[in-house]
Amino acid sequence: MLFEEIAKANMQALKDHDKQARSILSVLYGKFKLESIEKGLGAKELSDEDCLRIILKTIKELEEEKSGYEKAKRPEKVEEILAQKSILDRFLPKQLTEEEIRAEIIKLEDKKIPSIMKHFKNNFTGKCDMGLVSRIAKEFN
Fold first, then answer.
1. Which of 34, 95, 96, 101 is least surrounded by CB atoms within 10 angstroms?
2. How many C-beta neighbours within 10 Å does residue 53 have?
3. pLDDT exceeding 90 applies to what percent of the chain?
4. Separation of alpha carbons 83 and 62, rounded Å
5. What is the separation, in whole angstroms, between the first and last Cα of the chain?
6. How far is it, in rounded angstroms, from Cα 75 to Cα 31?
7. Are 28 and 55 in contact (CB under 8 A)?
8. What are the φ and ψ backbone dihedral angles of 92, each rounded to 5 degrees?
9. What are the tens digits of pLDDT across the range 28-54?
10. Over the Cα atoms of the chain, what is R_g?
11. CB proximity list for 119: less than 8 A, separation 6 or greater
12. 22 falls in which pLDDT band (50, 70, 90)?
């Protein structure tokens, strides 16, 4: 499971004295634990879908942080954020290509943007960039 993979990667980063990996994986592991407590799961682990949602949210937060550092002209921090993001990207499933997204949209009966977005959110969470899906969906409308 994804929860276990992150825990193992976090421990490996600790053993390897990899400060960058350790910092982002510790934050992510903490978010997993907090979500688990909030859901009342106790010792049970989160589902892969929940873990994936948290990873995607964390990546989005890193992107926002990176934008702030770019505006402040702090290239060393931008590099640090990019490195952390690449560490998290390893845990994401293979992303759908533009062609695969278009093919999936063509299969749908209702090609209205809200229907397309709902379909991808329900069936492909974490497997595609929803911004890209939105841009492609606009081509069909």
1. 34
2. 15
3. 59
4. 10
5. 39
6. 27
7. yes
8. -85, 150
9. 999 998 998 888 876 567 888 888 889
10. 17
11. 104, 108
12. very high
CA-based diameter of the chain, in Å?
A: 52
C-alpha span between 82 and 80 (Å, rounded): 5
Q: What is the pLDDT of residues 131-140, one digit of tens each?
A: 889 999 998 8
Q: What pLDDT is stored for residue 103 in this prediction?
A: 92
Counting Cβ atoms within 10 Å, is residue 6 exposed (0-12), middle (13-18) or buried (19+)?
A: buried
pLDDT category at 98 given cuts 50, 70, 90 is very high
Q: With contact defined as beta carbons under 8 Å apart, do 91 and 55 qualify?
A: yes
CA geometry: angle 69, 10, 77, nearest 5 deg: 10
**DSSP one-letter code for 109:** S
Tokens found for residue 54? 């948290």
What is d(CA 51, CA 82) in angstroms, rounded to the nearest whole number? 21
- Identify whether the C-beta of residue 39 lies closer than 8 Å to the C-beta of residue 3: no
Nearest Cα neighbor of 55 from 83, 90, 13 is: 90
